[in-house]
Design goal:
The protein is mostly beta strands. The chain has one helix and 19 strands. It comes from Arthrobacter cheniae.
């Protein structure tokens, strides 16, 4: 019998991120809901509690910015770079993220339901609860993150990878997945096992999932 091929048939996220051309450093931002800001650099600022619904940031850099309880519903982030964002409560439902990177993010509860993420890299953060219910994800890489609960209920995800992440609870009820790579990440529990269809896991993960898969199918295992 010929050796089994180790080449993956799962298509990886297609990322083409480049540094934003932010040239204008903003010391005291006057951001308003619905604003369109382009090429600006925000560093070590506090925007806690601000109403920024519908704002558009394009080719902007945010470093060490506090966004606790800021209203970012319907916000658009295009070719931006975020680092050390801090928000015990991050409210950005129905938001849009395109060709954007986030590094060392610290979110408590992140409300991102009904959002769209295209070409996004979330790298190295600690997040307690991430709500992406009914969102659309394409070409998304989540790497090196510690996530308490990742809620992907009803998502449509294409070319998404969780790489070297530690996730407490992964919820996949009603999810539609294509080329979603979960290898190299660990999960304490998974809800909505039917939603795993279209995902790629490794042999070790399969062994851990076996009891849950058997239970979901009504199988009894007796030695």
């Amino acid at each position: 019998m010929p050796p089994r091929s180790t080449r993956s048939t799962t298509t990886a996220p297609r990322l083409s991120l480049r540094p934003p051309r932010a040239v204008s450093r903003v010391e005291e931002p006057r951001l308003l809901d619905g604003d369109h800001r382009e090429g600006e650099h925000y560093e070590r600022l506090t925007l806690d509690g601000e109403d920024l619904a519908g704002i558009t940031l394009q080719e902007c850099i945010l470093e060490g910015v506090g966004l606790n309880d800021a209203e970012l519903r319907g916000a658009r982030f295009i070719e931006c770079s975020f680092e050390d964002l801090y928000a015990p409560v991050f409210r950005a439902s129905r938001s849009s993220w395109r060709e954007t990177s986030l590094r060392s993010t610290r979110w408590g509860s992140a409300e991102l339901y009904d959002s769209r993420l295209d070409g996004v890299h979330l790298d190295g953060g600690k997040l307690d609860y991430v709500n992406l219910r009914s969102s659309q994800l394409s070409d998304v890489l989540i790497s090196g993150c510690i996530i308490g609960e990742l809620d992907l209920t009803g998502v449509k995800a294409t070319r998404v990878a969780l790489q070297d992440c530690t996730v407490g609870t992964l919820t996949l009820d009603g999810a539609r997945l294509k080329d979603v790579d979960l290898r190299t990440s660990s999960f304490r529990s998974i809800n909505g096992l039917d939603g795993l269809r279209g995902a790629t896991i490794d042999e070790y993960q399969l062994q851990l999932l076996a009891p849950f898969l058997a239970e979901s199918m009504g199988l009894r295992i007796e030695g």
